[in-house]
Specification:
Layout (H helix, E strand, L loop, with lengths): L1 E6 L3 E7 L5 E8 L4 H15 L7 E5 L3 H8 L6 H12 L5 E5 L4 E7 L8 E7 L8 H11 L3 H8 L13 H13 L4 H21 L8 E4 L6 H11 L6
Parallel strand pairs: 1-4, 5-8
Antiparallel strand pairs: 1-2, 2-3, 5-6, 6-7
Helix pairs in contact: 4-7, 5-7, 7-8
């Protein structure tokens, strides 16, 4: 078997693969500021179920992956390379990966070279230092409104006419939200407005005028948010993504 580890800004993940790279088991846990302790707890659980002797390979990736790779004496793989390889393996038809994580977001372009079975990363882009257009931005705004982030997407789907909310800066977003609340805007409309604000910010800060080749895959923790998925599809007038 094989073991993969990913430590991001907000969550730690681990996956157990068989010899044909099929997923046997996976874990996805919020780190709450303790990434190493979190991944070690995950590994303790997995290795109690699957003895270390059964693993022929292991690797780590993500923003916090280098430290755990050093501690476990396993290879570290750049997250762009790892994500591109994963997308190519499970969805070889995909040409563009859109990813929004806890504190960063990416655009990954995949292209198949002549003679190659699977596409490889041909271009990529990352967001800047500000996390306004990432999952942390949504967490912050959800907390201000007293809405559990797990319910954020369902609340947004209730809106039919999302208002415009600033998405480039948390301070500006807060000002817009306060104004909307003062004029009696329903909570679900404000939440939906925040979703569209994030997508506008992602387009301006990461895509930056690039043409997106289809098929497109939307990944990252924020991709689990139904409100963000709807905003993404409506903003570009797409019918579906993988």
């Amino acid at each position: 078997m094989k073991l993969g580890i990913d430590i991001g800004s907000v969550t730690a993940k681990a996956v157990v693969l068989d010899d044909d790279s099929n997923i046997i088991e996976s874990r996805y846990v919020r780190t709450k500021g303790q990434p190493i302790e979190t991944i070690l707890a995950i590994l303790e659980e997995l290795l109690a179920k699957y003895p270390p002797a059964r693993f022929k390979a292991a690797a780590a990736t993500g923003t916090g992956g280098q430290l755990i790779a050093f501690l476990l004496d396993i290879p570290f793989v750049n997250e762009i390379t790892a994500q591109g390889a994963g997308a190519a393996h499970f969805h070889p038809e995909v040409e563009t990966v859109l990813e929004i994580g806890g504190e960063d977001s990416k655009l990954i372009v995949l292209q198949k070279e002549p003679g190659e079975k699977l596409p490889k990363v041909s271009d990529f882009a990352l967001n800047g230092a500000c996390a306004a257009g990432t999952g942390s931005f949504l967490d912050q705004q959800a907390s201000r409104m007293g809405i559990p982030i797990e319910q954020f997407g369902d609340v947004a789907l209730k809106s039919e006419h999302p208002p415009r909310v600033a998405g480039r800066c948390s301070v500006f977003a807060k000002s817009d939200m306060i104004h909307l609340q003062q004029v009696g805007t329903p909570v679900h409309d404000i939440v939906a407005g925040l979703c569209f604000a994030m997508i506008r910010n992602y387009k301006g800060q990461v895509i930056r005028g690039r043409d997106l080749c289809k098929p497109i895959s939307f990944q990252g923790g924020v991709a689990a948010n139904k409100g963000i998925r709807r905003a993404l599809l409506k903003y570009w007038n797409w019918k579906k993504m993988t």
